[in-house]
Amino acid sequence: MKNPLLLLIFATICLAATAQKNNPKKEEWEQMFNGKDLNGWDIKIAGQPLNDNYKNTFRVKEGILQIAYDEYEAFNGKYGHLYYNKPYSYYKLRFQYRFVGNQTKGGASWNVRNSGVMLHSQSAASLSFGQDFPVSLELQMLGGLGKGERHTANLCTPGTQVYIKGKLNTQHCIDSWSKTYDGDQWVTIEALVLGDSLIQHRIDNKVVFEYERPQIGGGFVSNDYSWKDAHVDEAAAQEWIKKDGTPLTEGYIALQAESHPIEFKKVEILNLKGCMDPKAVNYKSYYIKADNTLCEYKR
Fold first, then answer.
1. Phi, psi at residue 133, to the nearest 5°?
2. Amino acid 241: pLDDT
3. Which residue of 114, 180, 204, 230 is 20 to 30 Å from 125, comparing CA positions?
4. What confidence score (pLDDT) does residue 227 get?
5. Rounded mean pLDDT of 51-66?
6. pLDDT higher than threshold 80 for residue 211
7. 1 falls in which pLDDT band (50, 70, 90)?
8. Residue 7: is its pLDDT beyond 70?
9. What distance in Å separates the CA atoms of residue 173 and residue 152, rounded to the nearest whole number?
10. pLDDT at 16 over 50
11. What is the 3-state secondary structure (H, E, C) of the chain?
12. Domain residue ranges in the chain
């Protein structure tokens, strides 16, 4: 005969585990960087084939994702991006970064302690062979230079434009109102991205920049649409050539290589789009955008 006490204990454990698993309020952050390698990411560097990690630009060392140039003789316009291989539309992104060392020889003067994380980006495979920047919204990071103000969590707009306070703003780079971060200190930034409605850049739980209605247009990307790389999706690339005025509703996330060494300690994402049916076992109360095709139910 089975022990009733043991059965009760087992049932209690199972109920607790189920409740914890299905807690609709518990935020399920996904670690985009596994701390070991670049699994789950695609590489595209201007003038190089897709996933050619030119001169070991992107690497992982001791749990840190590094963008480094110690194998370069000179930068030579090798703008690169590391793309997470899954697109998102409604989400929170959180990452920790720091600038290190000196700028690579041949980098532009405006790229000293300058890098970015691209939001709503076109995919790595849809870039032309020599394209320097993807059509995207660049959350620009700038490090302090030891004197004067230099804000971070700014916005740059390669191939895009946005509205700020209800007015279309066609400036390429727009400063946030963050403080300046000098030296090699770690900085944590969070972005709230809500499709093509609202996007906020946050530091220390404070909004330092926000804009709305992102759309394709405005220029600031190279016009090299040569198809020299057999891995480039030519049809996808052609779609981006003439899309001015099209709302930018979703896209990929990419880390930028722009001639100054930078490190990332953590890159994580909280999807805000998913099942919003409270009867489903994977319902989350913090979701903002419904996709009930993802709902799962008890059988």
1. -130, 145
2. 59
3. 114
4. 44
5. 97
6. yes
7. very low
8. no
9. 11
10. no
11. CCCHHHHHHHHHHHHHHHHHHCCCCCCCCEECCCCCCCCCEEEEECCCCCCCCHHHCEEEECCEEEECCCCCCCCCCCCEEEEECCCECEEEEEEEEEECCCCCCCCCHHHCCEEEEEEEECCHHHCCCCCCCCCCEEEEEECCCCCCCCCCCEEECCCEEEEECCEEECCCEECCCCCCCCCCCCEEEEEEEECCCEEEEEECCEEEEEEEEEEECCCCCCCCCCCCCCCCCHHHHHHCCCCCCCECCCEEEEEEECCCCEEEEEEEEEECEECCCCCCCCCCCCCCEECHHHCCCCC
12. 32-270
CATH number belonging to the domain at 32-270, selected among 3.40.50.2300, 2.60.120.560, 3.30.230.10, 3.30.420.270: 2.60.120.560
Which amino acid is located at 277 in the chain?
D
**Residue corresponding to tokens 């994702």:** 65
The pLDDT of residue 17: 47
Task: Using the predicted structure, report yes or no on whether residue 40 has a pLDDT greater than 80.
Answer: yes
How far apart are alpha carbons 169 and 217 in whole angstroms? 11
Nearest to 90 by CA among 164, 161, 192, 200: 192
| More confident site: 234 or 283 | 283
Return the closest-CA partner of residue 98 out of 32, 35, 183. 183
Q: How confident is the model at residue 167 (pLDDT cuts 50, 70, 90)?
A: very high
Q: Which of 137, 192, 135 is nearest to 162 (CA)?
A: 137
